[in-house]
Amino acid sequence: MPFRSCPVMLLPVLISALMTAIPGHADSSESDGAADRQTIRDALTFHAAFDTTADATHFQRDGTIYTAESTGRESIKPGIHVPGVRLVEGDGKYGGHLRFTEKTKSVLAFAGSEMPYAERDWSGSVSMWLRLDPDEDLEPGFCDPFQVTQKAWNDAAFFVDFDKELPRDFRLGAFSDLGHWNPDGVAWSEFPESERPTVTATDPPFAGDRWTHVAFTFENVNPSEGKTSVATLYLNGEPVGSLQEPLRFRWDPDQVAIMIGINYIGDLDDLMIFSRALRPAEVAFVHASPSPIGFPRVADIGTRRELFVDRYLIEELSGEAKQVVQQPEPREVVLVTDAPWEGNTSAYYTIFEDESDDGGYRFRMYYRGSHYDTEKKKGTHREVVCYAESHDGIHWRKPELGLVEFDGSTANNIVWDGIGSHCFTPFLDTHPDCPPESRYKALGRGRPLAKKGLYAFRSADGIRWEPMSDEPVIVDGAFDSQNLAFYDPTIEKYRAYHRDFRGVRDIKWQVSDDFLNWTQPEFLDYGDTPLEHLYTNAIRPEPNAPHLLIGFPTRYLPDDGSRVEPTFMSSRDGRRFHRWLEPVIPESAPHDRSGNRSNYMAHGLLTLPDRPDELSVYATEAYYTGPDSRLRRFRYRVDGYVAVESSGEGQLETRPLRFDGDSMTINAKVSDGGSVVVEMMAANGTTIRSEPFVGDEIDATVNWESGDLAAVAGQPVRLRFRIRDASLFAFQFHP
Fold first, then answer.
1. What are phi and psi of 471, to 5 degrees?
2. Of 18, 228, 233, 259, which residue is least crowded by CB atoms under 10 Å?
3. CA angle 206, 211, 215 (to 5 degrees)
4. What end-to-end distance do the CA atoms of the chain give, in Å?
């Protein structure tokens, strides 16, 4: 590391605020000016994304992260060697992030040469994201998430810190050379608050369950005649206040350290440094951007099918282009729960494809049979697990299984009666080493017949079931919903998603190697999307893009007649989900969906025989209201959960990506007079362009005007889709 050991004191005193208005500066405060991603990026000199490495991903000279034994930097070595600090994959603002779990003397630092210093009229900006509850998470004492200095915290230094007093304030410190701002060596405690070189935010908007954006800008440090130094603190894109006084920094950049996480406990992500003071509109743009401003790492997509269900690959949408969640088309009623052991509260449908005895299609359906007397306000019979099957996903039969007695007869389609019957959720186990006797597995709630928790079940034929253990395998949760599991081949583990509460009904996840021993459950992370009551979750791998998990969580509206409406969400890691707020099956879909819990999405996504271009989902209707309830089929276009639509001229540009293959297809629907054109921009500056696509195809081959895809396969490229009066759903490269 190219900076020398220099003593750096921790903040020893209480700092308060000097908050003043920002005077007009043509080069920094044009808040009405438009913010442009590329213009902002042009000023970026340093970016530590903390996705797959703690080292900076964009830098000028040295992007290595170093560890020093203390803020005095007596002993320095590359890498993270700090107890309680680790790189977390995913769960960050945009990807991975750094997590600090304990206070320590050691400190992480980057080379100060990455702070673009100037001896005259120096300007710049620093941006980062923090996630913590300062009053709950931090240990006693001052805490500096960011500090840059050559000598000490109060000698030619910038820092942002949390006060040591509760409730903790948050501050920006902008300290000139010690001899300049404090020539007489006055004790800090004797300084009038109005003369302290700090900007303070009281009651700052930090929280342990969401990311808070922190930025500060500075102008004209080491000012020439006639210029004024200004330093401004921003939180979540809004200016907190400014410090205006001559700032003088005499630095040798090779001796400066950019230190992060001093006494910090919490999460830190996406540290960026810019070579100029960003305008207020640009700081707001950085805060609001759904994708990283910095140079993103290359996404290796190989030959995967990529859907536009999130912002992972989308660098920018412009013109009329926008993402629009789609609603499936209502089709026919496929099941009526009219048997005596079924009824109007039959629910928690699970549907999946299996192979029939003759090698053809067989679809299996499991659901709860139950009925509620609306006049007597109670159930009329015990809850049982019912079974139906179909060869086409539309016409279903309820076989007489002869397994369980109901009202003196076994002539029924009941497959299970006992522990777990309230929300019994089976699946076909695709684990390559699954033994034949456990080919089908299920989770079911223990209460009211057994202990609280989820019990594990297995079956060799999907009809005759038995418990896998005498005790529940998952115990941390509420479980009064459709709790489900499946085998995920992308991580070679079982995943489970179940109900719990955190002020609202919500979803927890966990994984297991053997279906019996599970990790500690954690709540899903929806980013900045507000928490809402979510009932069933219907999470599963997307059939044509299994690296994606999709879900149809049913939103519950307790203050609106206890209505429910299915929504859509997706994930690339199984814990952080991009959740869309628009309902995918509104109550206006036919019929009887406006009542109490009358619009649940079933757990199932099927490709039906002779319908290769569509996917079928199912949802309930007439819950509580009739002598029975119904299950209706809905039709999605393949990949058709979310579209990038443009009603005029629009454009989608991807982040850098790396593909395999020599051909490309798109899933698009073009209106009359519209088109989709694909442009591929290689790292060497060359661009190849496709012929316009017109039509409506699931896998339309992209025909190129010139160029050879194979020549740039395996190299970083960007894609630009020019979309005019069309909808784009997905793309894929092929060998």
1. -120, 155
2. 228
3. 80
4. 45
Residue 694 main-chain phi, psi, to 5 deg: -130, 140
**Exposed, middle or buried, 447 (CB in 10 Å: 0-12/13-18/19+)?**
middle
pLDDT for 23 equals 30
The per-residue DSSP string of 246-295 comes to: -------GGG-EEEEEET--EEEEEEEEESSPPPHHHHHHHHH-SS-SS-
* Residue 285 pLDDT exceeds 80: yes
| Nearest residue to 431 (alpha-carbon basis) of 381, 494, 523, 516 | 494
pLDDT tens per residue across span 352-362: 999 877 777 89
Task: Copy the structure tokens of residue 228.
Answer: 């004024």
AA letter at 57: T
- What percent of the chain has a predicted confidence (pLDDT) above 70? 95
Q: Give the span between the Cα atoms of 300 and 313, in whole angstroms.
A: 10
Cα gap 524→571, rounded to integer Å: 10
Q: Is 42 helix (H, G, I), strand (E, B) or coil?
A: helix
Assess contact for 723 and 676: CB atoms under 8 A: yes
Q: Give CA–CA dist 712/658, Å, rounded.
A: 9
pLDDT at 483: 98
Calpha distance 658→688 (Å, rounded): 16
- The yes-or-no verdict on residue 4 having pLDDT over 80 is no
Quick check: helix, strand or coil at residue 651? Answer: strand
Contact between 2 and 177 under an 8 Å Cβ cutoff? The reply is no
Among 729, 722, 717, 721, smallest CA distance to 659 is for 717
Dihedral pair phi/psi, residue 255, rounded to 5°: -105, 5
Euclidean distance between CA atoms 16 and 196, whole angstroms: 7
- Residue 76: strand, helix, or coil: strand
Token pair 């703690």 in the structure block, residue: 54
Instruction: Give yes or no for a contact between 47 and 56, defined as CB atoms under 8 angstroms apart.
Output: yes
Phi, psi for 113 (deg, rounded to 5)? -65, -15
**Cβ burial, residue 258 (10 Å; 0-12/13-18/19+):** buried
Q: Give the 3-state secondary structure of residue 367.
A: strand
| Cβ atoms of 29 and 280 closer than 8 Å | yes
Whole-angstrom distance, CA of residue 612 vs CA of residue 635: 12
Is the separation of the CB atoms in 724 and 674 below 8 Å? yes
Q: Minimal CA–CA distance to 458: which of 416, 495, 496?
A: 416
CB < 8 Å & 24+ apart, contacts of 373-380? 374/624, 379/345, 380/343
- DSSP letter assigned to residue 525: B
What pLDDT was estimated at residue 588?
Answer: 87
Q: Over 80: is that where the pLDDT of 17 sits? A: no
The lowest-confidence range among 32-46, 84-98, 377-391, 454-468 is: 32-46
Residue closest to 457 by CA, chosen among 408, 418, 488: 418
**If you count DSSP H runs as helices and E runs as strands, how many of each does the chain have, helices first?**
5, 50
Please give the structure tokens belonging to residue 157.
């230094």
Do 251 and 221 touch, CB atoms closer than 8 A? no
What lies within 8 Å, CB to CB, of 425 at 6+ separation is 348, 350, 366, 442, 443, 444, 482, 483, 484, 485, 603
* 525 pLDDT above the threshold of 50: yes
Whole-model pTM: value is 0.69
DSSP 8-state symbol, 203: S
